[in-house]
Amino acid sequence: MKKNITQNIGFLMLFLCIIVTLIFLGSIIYFISARGAKVISWEFLTQGPRMGMTQGGVLPAIIGTFYLTLGAILFALPLGLSCAIYLCEYSPKSFVVNIIRISINNLAGVPSVVFGLFGLAVFVNFFKFGVSILSGSFTLGILALPLIISASQEALMAVPQSIREASLSLGATKWGTIKNIVLPTALPGILTGVILSIGRVAGETAPILFTAAAFYTRGYPKSIFSEVMALPYHIYALMTEGTHPDQQKAIAYGCSLILLFMVLLVSGIAIAIRQRQRGINA
Prior knowledge:
- Helices cover 77% and strands 1% of the residues.
- It is an all-alpha fold.
- It has a domain at 62-234: MetI-like fold, CATH 1.10.3720.
- The chain is globular.
């Protein structure tokens, strides 16, 4: 009887935690949507800002955010996945490997402004990429690396060892087993890390503040060495600078709603791919 009571109390607490989380999530979405939907229009989505960013649209910032996020994931995903494969499948179990894993987990807790300063020193100044899409993408990619590596490691370690042994016993090579058996099985977990990384990368301001973002640019980026406007920095600029606070605040809420929609859209696509892969694996 005591065990049943304890179990029911535990389930009740978990349910209450879920309800509280959904309330906060719903409040944020409602708050942003209620204020941002007022300024959303076709002009707002397809034109650039004008009149001191109090009129026009935010298309350059949308495009810049897309370029930076895409560049960061294209840089971080192959590198992070390769690192996870090596740590889980090839590296011997040793003290050094454990230190590397702990360091990766600690790197995930480093403030984003530190990554921004690193990107400024390395990509902007040392490699002479300048304030550009390339510098910002690399900096955001490094920011996303710990999350992708950790999620990929957990997904790879969740694959039963018996599956690997069965493949090897049938004459498959170790790499063939990893490529054809382990990675497809672990793909849903890897995509979870990618989804979380997209959400973090798309909303970061501090790293691109030093490496990629411009307060205002005319036109659209012409190459990976062009500086860009980005929604997170655009929101920050609208809320902290300017002479028309009411108009700029309304535009900032509109930008927030667009950014939220972009993250949800990309995450939804990744979730759909993950669910499809789970159905294939099942």
